[in-house]
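Field guide to reading this record: the first block holds the primary sequence, the second block holds the structure written as discrete tokens, and the final block holds curator observations. Each block starts with its own label. This record concerns thioredoxin-dependent peroxiredoxin, catalogued under organism Allocatelliglobosispora scoriae.

BLOCK 1 — SEQUENCE
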Amino acid sequence: MAAVKGPGVRDAAPDFTLASHTSSEKVSLGDFRGKTVVLYFYPKDDTRGCTAQACSLRDSHEVFTDAGAVVIGVSSDSVESHKKFADRYNLPFTLLSDEGGEVRKAFGVPATFGLLPGRVTYVIDGAGIIRHVFNSQMNIGGHVDGALAVVKELQAAA
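BLOCK 2 — STRUCTURE
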């Protein structure tokens, strides 16, 4: 079976609407037009790598927001699972539930070893254009450091 090809750098990010852990309302990527979005796909709440990534983003959250960026996490876990995960680790950003995996497919996020949902981070500018893609299941710090560098570049260019 061929891998799903998703958008890359300089492509328009696919719009989507998903349920948020913070409210009963749905959140759309288009809601953030005009802002830089750090959109990260991760495999599963409360796993070692995903917890490390979420906590690293939490610890850098103020730097991201000071640079005008919004951080959004997406996995196939339920809204209830996201609520527990966010509460347990005091996550200050939105987690979205992609239970059917449709948004993951639209972005072409690959599975690791064909089984484990991939870990990919996108930086999307205020016009909805992807400016950075980092794909690594194991290099957790690379997701945060790479995204932060691009967010700062976008802020400096504004």
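BLOCK 3 — OBSERVATIONS
The longest strand covers residues 69-75.
The CA atoms of residues 108 and 122 lie 12 Å apart.
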